[in-house]
Amino acid sequence: MTEADLPAVAAIERQLFPDPWSENLFRDDLRDDGRRMAVCLRSDGAVAGYAVGWFVEDEFHLGNLAVAREWQGRGLGKRLLAHALDQARSRSCRLATLEVRASNRTAIGLYRRSGFTEVAVRKRYYGAEDALVMLAELDAARC
Ligand SMILES: CC(C)(COP(=O)(O)OP(=O)(O)OC[C@H]1O[C@@H](n2cnc3c(N)ncnc32)[C@H](O)[C@@H]1OP(=O)(O)O)[C@@H](O)C(=O)NCCC(=O)NCCS
């Protein structure tokens, strides 16, 4: 993800989420301090999806994963998640964690099939809605 992608990323964010991240929040994750990952998938130059995550010691936390509505259901979310987890493995992370809305069956299904399991519930994490905390153990040999 680059500065030039931010308007398109923020537009997708507004399309998909009731509590969208601002351009400034994404901009923060473009800083090259060795602790952040921010990637975009493009089609014909246009942003189709993105993922943001943070490396904390031996843990990777997925902060955001999204695919524009018109591109959903074609395997892009799975590819973005696989890429993020490969980045984490290549930095010797042993664990990946994330929060997801308890009602988001599509994302929860994707995470489960990618090796995540539910380990906790954060009550009213998203306003009135609970978050599931999901965790995957990362096997460096799979990188
Ligand atoms: C969740 C999201 C990133 C998935 O991306 P995607 O490109 O649509 O998903 P993919 O095409 O890669 O499919 C991934 C898996 O989800 C399943 N899936 C996709 N769309 C689905 C749907 N509408 N209902 C049920 N399962 C679905 C697919 O079958 C696939 O599993 P499989 O390959 O094992 O069969 C995307 O739907 C999205 O951006 N949603 C809105 C934002 C969001 O909820 N982000 C996650 C926040 S934690």
Biggest sheet, in brief?
A: 6 strands, mixed
**Count of structural domains:** 1
Determine the mean pLDDT.
Answer: 95
By DSSP, the count of extended strands is: 6
What are the low-pLDDT stretches, counting only 5+ consecutive residues below 50? none
Cα shape: globular
Which percent band covers the strand fraction?
35-45%
Radius of gyration: 15 Å
Distance between the termini: 22 Å
The second-level CATH architecture is: 3-Layer(aba) Sandwich
Q: At the third CATH level, what is the topology name?
A: Aminopeptidase
Number of helices: 4
What is the highest CATH level, the class?
Alpha Beta
What's a quick, concise take on this entry?
With 143 residues, this protein is of the alpha+beta class.
Descriptive overview:
The protein is of the alpha+beta class and about 140 residues long. About 30% of the residues lie in helices and about 40% in strands. It contains four helices and six strands, in the order ααβββαβαββ. It has a six-stranded mixed beta sheet, with helices on both faces. A hairpin with a 2-residue loop joins β1 (about 35-45) and β2 (about 45-55). The protein is globular. Coenzyme A binds near residues 74, 77, 100, 106 and 110. Coenzyme A binds near residues 16, 106 and 107.
Question: What brief labels describe this structure?
Answer:
143 residues; Aminopeptidase; 4 helices; binds coenzyme A; alpha+beta
